[in-house]
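Comment thread on ticket #2218

A.B. wrote:
> Attaching the input chain for the structure job we discussed in standup.
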Amino acid sequence: MLIWLVEESAPRRMIEASAVTRLVDAIGAENQETFARCILETVGGLVSAEVCYVLAHEAQRTPRLLSAAGVAGPWLASTAGAVHAREFARQDLLREVLDRRPAVGPVGVVLVSQQRTDDLPAGPLRDQGLDALGLIDRLSILVRASEATWLAVHLYRTQGQSYFLRDDIDSLASMARLTARCMKHHYAFDNDGIGALRSRVSGSVLDLGERLTSREKEVLTRILDGVTVNRIAEDLHLRPTTVATYRQRAYDKLGVTSRQELFATVLQHRPPSLAPA
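C.D. wrote:
> Ran it. Output below, let me know if you need it in another format.
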């Protein structure tokens, strides 16, 4: 996997104004296909790709699929995005960047990465998540949207196509900031405020520091979301008894005995971040 920091970006070739207008208009669209389809249309003037999906990585949670679209229709993109988010996100090499503490860059930093399927070791992510769907190469734009949240748009080529070349990478990087800005606005277009609250809670749990292991933080963020032990176990591919053990160890380290006391600890730890907007 290769990663580049995007410092400045301006399209290397002309992009149709109508495509950019459609992308901006797609921000906040309720149809899950619309935003990703408009990214494909806009990027398509510079870089050819068959599949596009957008994920929100909110701290230790399972990523959320925000949008998915494909040249041949939404099925492949939606399936790939859902499988990635639900089953294989922890195996993605990008986790080394997304989970890094301190973070790889400040809020607003934009990265571009390339990850070829052939470069991945044999295993479930490659065999079941990529090869089975015919995905051979990925270019991604990542933006750090908040202290604990990264957004990612993944563009794939499929079997029968060539790998992305350096010119493709440079072309994508040239419009990375535009795409990242639109992603941030799409993510923020949250009528019930859940995204903002989850981001603040995620930051608070991460800021509890070295007292908690990564697994304990994963469990606590989900507990604060109101997720049951059984659902947490399903998300993390663990037994419910194992999840309960992680929960108890985390509670013991923080000196709390319940979800209500955990909320109080989080609120006391970072009151400014969790104060109502």
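A.B. wrote:
> Thanks. Noting for the ticket: The beta strands are 2-6, 51-58, 64-70, 110-116, 135-144, 149-158.
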